Amino acid sequence: MRIVQPYKHLNRLIQNESLEPRIRWAFRMAIAAMVPLIWGLYTGKLAEAGWIALAAECICWIELKGDFQQKLNLLAGGSVLATIFAVLGSASGNIIWLSIALVAFVGFLTSILKSLGDRGSGLALSVFALFIFCNAYPVKGLEALTERTELIFIGAAWNAVVAIASFLFTPAQEPYRRSIAIVFKSIAELVQTLSNGWEGKGPRSNEHDIYLKEKEIRNALDASLDLFEKTAHEAGQKDGHEFNLAHARKAVALVGAQMITVSQELSNISINRLETDIRIKVFTILRATQQTLDRMAAYTISLDAGEELILKSRIYRLYKLIVLLREALKESDIDNSNLQRFVQLSLRNTKLLESSFNNIREVVNERSVLRTYPFMKTFYILHPKYWWQYLRLLFNFNSFTVKYAVRTATASAIAMFIYKWWNIDHGYWIPFTVLILMQTYFGATIKKARDRILGTLAGGLVAGLFLKLPTGLYLQEALLFLSFIPMIIYLRKRYSWAVFFITINLILLFSINREISDSLILIRGLSTIAGAGIAIVAGFALLPTWDKNLLPIHLAEAIKRNHHYFLATFFPNDADVNWTKHKRLAESGNNNAFDSFTRYMQEPGFRKKPYAIFYQILTHNIRITRELNNIRLEQDSDSNLETNIDTVRQQERINETLDWFNKNTAVLKQLDPNIISPTIHTDSTTITLSAQQEIYLEKMLIELKAMNEDLLILAEKLPRIMRL
Fold this sequence. Notes:
The chain has 26 helices and no strands. It is mainly alpha-helical.
């Protein structure tokens, strides 16, 4: 067992690296920072090398995702912004009030950048880190400022060279394929969660656990669509490999949606009443599906011939297992309508997986970026229209984002004043910590502050011990190089561990060209504590954002999006051809409401909060979205070819469902006075439902009626909740 466990950890690390190449990112950062330092050691120009390395490392924090053009855009934008604010920091460091004003602007700007996602967070870090470090070591005179600017520019250019070199020889569609592979992997994790308990050991997964996995699928799909926007119905044969990948992504998205339907069917089955051989067959199909999805993820990235052979056998085995279960159900005496439905859905999913596999297999003879990218296209980055688009995106914010930006700007200005006014030695860590820790929500700020304090204190202690090592063997430089890897690996997983290694990295970096004493490490720790305190107080006192106010608004928006989805399904107009758009919007609305509810439960309060009513409404709305998904997924299936359908009765049921949607929407004005109710353009539906779709419609109607009761209760209690 002692040998098996490390092997499992190593295998998991390799699999994760193929999905999200963090180790490659870490090595790129290490090379970008270490090469200038090595040059400085051999030439005796450690001060100059330190600034080049610092600039390269800061800009390297920008996470480069997407195709080659998108990565170039990020590199260009990040390098320009970082250089500008490095110059501003260098020129303003000797003027206290100018430093305070500029750090407030930096805090405002970087808060807007953080709202753009992971890439924006890295861009924000590169901007405020270089500004604060350059401000802490200002220059005097135009000549010195010019020299500092040149060093920062060299660092930015060197980082760009390293980054471009690392991408030039990769296959052109690898980022697209990787985004699809992450979707496969997230569905595999959902299937693994669904299979819990079916082997006869342990409990089955609850609805909350299943929804969290469903949420990960939605996030993976949104991330892929954010990077590669062209969908399957928009792509054409002229798009080449992009056409195949768009259709492969559509197929896997349908697999993810149908696996949620599978979970609903399985939840209606009592395992204890099943015959053992049938239960084992269901479990075997679930595990075989999970294994097929895992292999699909691996093949999508590697396109390896060996993986292709394994995948073919997995799909063939899945077909055989489904047939075996179908035959067993024919001979069974139990009421197996849910199991029959499970067989039907499993067969559809297998066909979709095979379709996705065939589309990905068409991506043959894929050439590298170097051979496919027209480098004249690089000059398009300099076109003013692109920079105008970026500025519009950056400043397309709402009142919520502005409140967060103003809060960060004020807190960072206070921190800079404390540092400058009392001339605290190495006190620049105070505003740096504030800008790192400030989050949009109070609970997230507290959690990040706790992790940062623990990581900084532990990292400072360990780094202090490293500084006692003999310098002649270059052990400190070797440890500096190695520290890049774990800090990137833990960045999204365990922030406290990431901070631990970041602290070691920064102390070792600054110790190369200047002495770092134990007292300075202590000052760093105390400054971190002070910065964390300012961030927490600011999050509580300066324009705070509380989810007790936001949660009703998020719920109202999620319910409204389901209403839109229903209208687009049963009363479509010309703009509702692409139903998956409404599906994405409805699921995103549910995700936003769920995240708000989670934060609401974590908010401090002295009285007991009414959690149940919010949770009940949210779960009703999630189930309604699922039923709408089920109706849409059944629309093109063979079951929709049934005859003897009572269309009059169906129309009555659809109209009744619409009435309940309208009743619920009428209550939403009490949750969010600014909400705009959807409108209907016709009074008769354009689709005919199958028997299975009618079942889904009935289940939706039940959820709508139950939700209406809860909405009325919430509307009555809401004024009291707001006062808590």
